[in-house]
Write a structure and sequence with these properties.
Layout lengths: L9 H19 L21 H11 L6 H16 L5 H17 L2 H26 L5 H81 L3 H29 L17 H10 L3 E7 L6 H21 L4 E9 L2 E9 L13 H12 L3 E9 L2 E11 L2 H4 L1
Parallel strand pairs: 1-2
Antiparallel strand pairs: 2-3, 3-5, 4-5
């Protein structure tokens, strides 16, 4: 299977071409880095200069695609260049290979190259001075530092800045993603809350209207029809008031749009009286403290309200009991109603009421159960909820 070499970056091709043309220009002008009679020149002749120049230019095409390979081959080409008359562009292109190896190479290469270049610079400074004991020998270390260590250090600094910028960008994207998720969750939670409020506030009144309007249409009795129409009107007015309260919650509080206070357990008596007006036989037994957290009072009120609505639509004739007890840091709610083979409900239902009650209790960290049970009064439908009344348990 043939191995495909990485495709060179376009900018790298431009760098290689510029370096090659510049080197050829210096070669054509006869501008070598060292005179031909210098002792270090072992490969005499102008044509030897072209070999490391061409190889280094070829390495420049791989400075981004294969930075480590390009650096190693470029190092070999620079070694050959040092025993010829030399070309300044070969040295400049090698410094770029060192820089690219640190900037684009793997993390291990980026860490090692500066250390190796630094050690070579120190060795190139100390060893010649110790051997030759001449101040001019310090120039060897200076040249190695300029050719190897400075490009490596520059690449390391640029890489750190680039990595920091990339990390900041990723953090910004993650923050934006989390903010969007929080926003979406907040929207879903608010929609669910408003759905619960709308259902609990309006369902009771609309159920009563549906039941009494059916009675008014089916019975040919003026007194009964008049009584049913009175109940319908009362529930319509109350439902309209609840809708206005909900609209007031949705809108900014100002003048005539200021929302009414949320219902509390003090309104259970009026709620039960309304259920009795709608034809339910309800008994209320409430024993709770005077100071309950507002979320607990609202949830308890809505649970009782929805339970009475379900009893109005589904319960068989008989007594409906509502009991509230506060003990051991929690408020217990129990609503029971006769349950049997009644047939079709007196008003249609969607099942959203039980879901809403369960959600309200879950939000406060309580427990909720609803279903048929057997009792001394026969089969009953029982709703039981326990709400913690300590702020820290659900705040």
């Amino acid at each position: 299977m043939a191995v495909r070499l990485p495709r060179p970056h376009r900018f790298d091709l431009y760098v290689a071409l510029a370096g090659l043309l510049g080197g050829l220009l210096l070669w054509g002008l006869g501008l070598a880095a060292r005179p031909a009679d210098e002792e270090i020149v072992l490969l005499d002749g102008e044509w030897w200069i072209l070999l490391p120049l061409v190889v280094t230019a070829g390495c420049e095409t791989l400075r981004r695609a294969m930075p480590r390979t390009a650096l190693l081959v470029g190092w070999a080409a620079l070694t050959v260049d040092t025993i010829t008359q030399g070309n300044l562009l070969t040295v400049l292109m090698f410094t770029d290979l060192v820089y690219a190896a640190v900037l684009y190479g793997p993390p291990a290469t980026a860490r090692r190259v500066p250390w190796i270049a630094g050690l070579m610079t120190v060795a190139g400074t100390v060893v010649p001075v110790a051997v030759w004991r001449r101040p001019e020998a310090l120039l060897i270390g200076v040249v190695i530092g300029l050719v190897a260590f400075m490009p490596a250090a520059t690449g390391w600094i640029v890489r750190n800045h680039r990595d920091a910028a990339e990390a900041a960008r990723l953090r910004a994207e993650q923050t934006a993603l989390l903010a969007e998720m929080d926003r979406a969750q907040a929207v879903v939670s608010e929609r669910a809350r408003m759905a619960r409020e709308l259902h609990d506030m309006v369902a009771n009144h609309l159920s009563a209207i549906a039941i009494h309007s059916t009675a008014a249409l089916s019975l040919d009795d003026p007194d009964t029809s008049k009584q049913a129409l009175g109940v319908i009107r009362e529930n319509s007015v109350e439902g309209l008031a609840e809708m206005r309260r909900l609209i007031g919650i949705l809108r900014d509080s100002s003048d005539d749009t200021e929302p009414s206070a949320a219902p509390t357990l003090d309104g259970l008596g009026a709620l039960v009286d309304g259920a009795r007006t709608n034809g339910l036989d309800v008994t209320l037994d409430a024993d709770h403290g005077d100071t309950l957290p507002a979320p607990v009072e609202l949830a308890a009120y809505r649970i009782v309200q929805e339970s009475l609505t379900n009893a109005l639509k589904h319960a068989c004739p008989g007594r409906v009991t509502v009991a509230l007890r506060q003990a051991d840091g929690s408020l217990g709610i129990a609503v029971t109603s006769p349950y049997g083979d009644r047939g079709q409900p007196s008003a249609p239902g969607s099942g959203a009421g039980l879901v809403g009650m369960r959600e309200r209790v879950a939000l406060l960290g309580g427990t909720f159960e609803a279903g048929p049970e057997s009792s001394g009064r026969g089969k009953i439908w029982s709703v039981n909820a326990t709400l913690p009344v300590t702020e820290g348990e659900f705040a």
